[in-house]
Design a protein that fits this description.
The structure holds two protein chains of two kinds. By secondary structure, chain A is of the alpha+beta class. Chain A is 38% helix and 21% strand. Chain A has a four-stranded antiparallel β-sheet with strand order 2-1-3-4. In chain A, a hairpin with a 5-residue loop joins strand 1 and strand 2. Chain B has one domain. In chain B, 63% of the residues lie in helices and 0% in strands. The longest helix of chain B is centred in the middle third of the chain and has 29 residues. The chains are: A alpha+beta, B mainly alpha.
Chain lengths: 152, 306
């Protein structure tokens, strides 16, 4: 590449990298980003999380892995999928919940579950690791029973 | 003045250094794409209702047809090998860069933008337009390695500058959004706790280290100061090689800390490939290739070590 062209390419690339941060409000995108990870002030340790839970026969709830809840390896992507599907109308939320229940039924580790719940849970994230892992409160957004298993 | 500009943006560097960067980035991309195959494949047929396009895909109102996304993913694999081995670089490396941009943008276009692959895409783009296959490459067989030149140094420096820019932007975002409150450590401590709770409550693994450190707020205050210092101080890495090396080691340690405390893996950074532009990486290539391989390839026509 000729020298002038190389310099123009450098200017274009570095300039493009700057643009997301200069926009008002700053814009996150890919691969150009303003890199907003962990930049917002978080003075309180409270957090709200929408999650998929397996309801066990003894009433305990166990969080479902992202592959079962959203068919995705990426935990953060599964969080977005849960959020999107559960707020997309009751029919879609129910279908989403039932699809999770089918995957739970097929999973050796979770197949004893009696139901699936999609819930919005509020935690104190610091207290969570100081002996208080239970949510401060939890709202069940959708619940579906496990699909009936046909006799062999 | 022109001397200073040359030293910064057009420094004479050996062709082997840029070629070594091509090999390491190409090797990383090749392995990464294999490991992430099922993950990337899962994005090729997600429902249109979930499509939240970013970057180049914002031109589309619906996800691209499934077959085009799968074809693009399939083609990435041989093209990553072409980058790694420096084969038909002028033609195939830009094709790889464009397809990589396409496939990784698609994987970020369903609601959650991750920030782990940004630098990889940028490095591959720079390598694609640079003379990165004039040494240690199939394209260079039968040719002697050219003398050190500014055009090799330009690409290496541009990758280093892009790396610095990423951290400068990340540091600036913290100051912009949290202000000096970030320094008190409370925000960082809460983020570490959030991240781990989120992992556990979404059924994944969390950091075993975080619960041990969370009772010590002062530790997070120190850590917040350190992270802002190396992010906002990133431009010093471009001033000279030693500062560059020192900064690269510091920022690598920062990522190791993020992995250890938040179980968040920026693998391009953790593997240190992202920071190789700050090192004389051609020496590493000469050391790690088995002597027999070096001798054979070299005798085949100056492919590697002429």
């Amino acid at each position: 590449m000729p020298r002038l062209l190389a310099h123009l390419f450098s200017l274009a690339l570095l300039g493009a990298m700057l643009i997301p941060a200069l926009r008002e409000p700053p814009a996150d995108s890919f691969p150009l980003s303003d890199y907003p990870m962990f930049s917002q002030e978080r003075a309180s340790p409270e957090m709200i999380l929408e999650q998929a839970l397996a309801v066990l026969p003894d009433g305990r709830r166990r969080p479902l892995p992202s592959l079962i809840s959203a068919e995705n390896h990426e935990v953060l992507q599964s969080m977005m999928t849960i959020h999107r599907e559960v707020h997309a109308g009751s029919a879609r939320a129910r279908a989403f919940c039932q699809a999770i229940a089918r995957r739970v039924a097929a999973d050796e580790e979770f197949r004893s579950a009696v139901a699936v719940e999609i819930a919005s849970s509020r935690f104190d994230a610091v207290a969570y690791f100081e002996g208080a892992p239970e949510p401060l409160d939890r709202v069940v957004l959708m619940r579906c029973e496990m699909p009936s298993v046909e006799a062999p | 003045m022109r001397e200073l500009v040359d030293r910064l943006v057009w420094p004479r560097m050996p062709a082997e250094r840029l070629a070594a960067l091509r090999i390491f980035v190409g090797l990383y991309a090749t392995i990464y794409l294999v490991i992430r195959l099922t993950h990337l494949y899962s994005y090729t047929d997600l429902p249109a209702s979930a499509f939240a396009p970013v970057g180049v895909l914002r031109l589309l109102s619906a996800p691209p047809p499934v077959w085009t996304s799968r074809l693009a993913l399939l083609l990435l694999y041989p093209l990553s090998w072409a980058l790694l081995f420096g084969y038909r670089h002028r033609l195939l490396a830009p094709a790889f860069a464009l397809l990589l941009l396409w496939v990784l943008t698609l994987s970020n276009s369903f609601g959650k933008i991750l920030h782990t692959d940004n630098l990889l895409v940028i490095y591959v783009s720079v390598l694609a337009v640079s003379p990165a296959a004039e040494a240690y490459a199939m394209d260079a067989r039968g040719r002697s390695v050219p003398a050190p030149d500014g055009r090799y140094g330009w690409a290496v420096q541009l990758m280093a500058a892009a790396c610095v820019m990423v951290y400068l932007l990340a540091g600036s975002a913290k100051l912009r959004d949290a202000g000096f409150a970030f320094f008190d450590g409370e925000t960082l401590r809460n983020y570490v706790a959030f991240s781990n709770v989120r992992k556990i409550e979404l059924g994944s693994h969390h950091s075993p280290l975080a619960p041990l450190l969370l009772p010590y707020p002062r530790f997070f205050s120190t850590l917040a100061g350190f992270s802002l210092l190396i992010e906002l101080g990133a431009p010093v890495a471009l001033l000279n090689r030693r500062l560059g090396v020192a900064w690269a080691i510091a920022i690598w340690a920062f990522h190791v800390g993020v992995l250890a405390m938040m179980a968040i893996g920026f693998f391009f950074q953790i593997t240190a490939v992202a920071f190789l532009p700050f090192f004389r990486v051609e020496r590493l290539i000469a050391r790690i290739l088995p002597r027999a391989v070096r001798k054979k390839i070299s005798s085949d026509g100056d492919f590697l070590l002429a």
